[in-house]
Amino acid sequence: MKGALAGVRVIDSTTMVAMPTGTHILGDMGAEIIKVETHTMFRTEAARLMYADNQPGKQPWNRDGSFNSLQRSKLGITLNLKTDEGKDAFRELVQISDILVENNRAGTMDRLGLGYEAMRQIRPDLIYVSNTGFGHTGPWRRYAGIGRMFELTCGLSHFTGYPDEGPRRVGKAFFDLHVGWMSVFAILAALQHRHETGNGQWLDFAMYQVGVSTMGDVILDFLINGRPGGLMGNSHPSRAPHGVYPCKGEDEWLAIDIQTERQWRDLINIFGNPPWSKSDLFSSEIARKQNEQMLTNHMNCLTSSWHTKTLYHLLQQAGIPAAPVMNSRDVVTDPHLRE
Question: What GO molecular function annotation could you give as one example from this UniProt entry (predicted)?
């Protein structure tokens, strides 16, 4: 199969994770991706270097698993864009390409003479994607931005963490993959626009913008109700029980989310209808939320006598949303994933 984007050529002049993810997805869809690298900047962060058998070998630049994963489906060329020769070669690529994707700090490509206005003179219907941290307008436009910081600037970290510990990051560059996939949608829309009108365009594509767009419900809550929200740990704004509870064994946990009264009754029935469950303190969703800490203590006692997988399957068979907290070993050995 040639793929939906067969015949489309993309210049990928990007680094790190977000945009290389977007371009390799385009490659998976059939586009020809030309990865433009520079010898003056390393391909990825040192912490992300991964080699087979932990051996860099004689050509470590060709053995890094993280880089090769992100750059699959791509051709490659190395150019020094600070030289006239490198710039000329880059312009020649633009002449025969449909899409150019770059993720330099705002203004960098213009200073090199390779910005959108210059490139559209070479290829009038070019789709030019500029991915930056904060976009090309606004007071933060000159600021650098990397994936792991956007949980904080977009507001997500204001809600992730426990009230007595302060904000927490998710642990990885959470928004990188969001941005990568959104870039695919943006580029496909630009291709459709060019198909209909014959015109290319410049996409000012900011990671910050994508991050903020994922926070719509809490932004709306502030605009309408004046509530800025706050740290919730594993709790839910209105439902209880809703959390991650300990199970039998070392570091074994199960997430449970009760959404309806029927699910609550089924949950309590599975746990043997303990006497405390008949109290007015837990007789309704509102009452359970108001007495959530007491309820959490009871839930911890109940779940801690069960093995994670046993309770997980039992709850799911009863129609109760539940899921084990899995590490990477659990994921790759899971029979469902293998199928």
Answer: CoA-transferase activity
